[in-house]
Amino acid sequence: MREIISEMEEYAINYNVPIIEKDSIAFIMKYIKANGIKNILEIGTAIGYSAILMASVADDIQVTTIERDETRYMEALKNVKKCDLEKRITVVCQDALEMNLSGVSYDMIFIDAAKGQYTNFFEKYKYFLNPGGVIISDNLKFHGHVGNRDNIASRNLKQLVGKLENYIDFLKNNEEFETNFYDVGDGLSVSKKKNEQ
To answer: In the 3-class helix/strand/coil scheme, how is 84-150 assigned residue by residue?
Structure first.
């Protein structure tokens, strides 16, 4: 499996596919193990890199991962199959904001998709958390741009960073959830329902 992971890292570099930083996925894998997490929903599969690593923490972990880009979805399916994890990782090709879930709940929801939609993802999927479950968000520093918006020339990038900054404020001021921020990789947050602390 290590060989397949290396191949995926190489593919991500060659095809310019954003995958999670090594420090960040190491942090999440440790969290999964320490908290006995069994059911995971991931928003933003890319090529399946983080889904495969999260599933590899223990043999009884189930991951559902959503990807709207068909090319990446196909690549993720291929990688999941190579790792022999089809029974434990379900890859769905759909826009996460259009997906309808029912009768399912998760110990952990991992948000690593369109940065401008983080608040919408959080609001839509928070209802599918098990008691004691958490929502983890990645890329909150966004390559050092967050907090340095005035130095950005590109209007699109400036808007995107603005949305991420709004999301961070949304987490900080959220009455329902207690969020801890971690200076790991490209910036992570772990949000847990307040009445279940």
So the answer is: CCCCCEEEEECCCCCCCCCCCCEEEEEECCCHHHHHHHHHHHHHHEEEEEEEEECCCCCCCCCCCHH
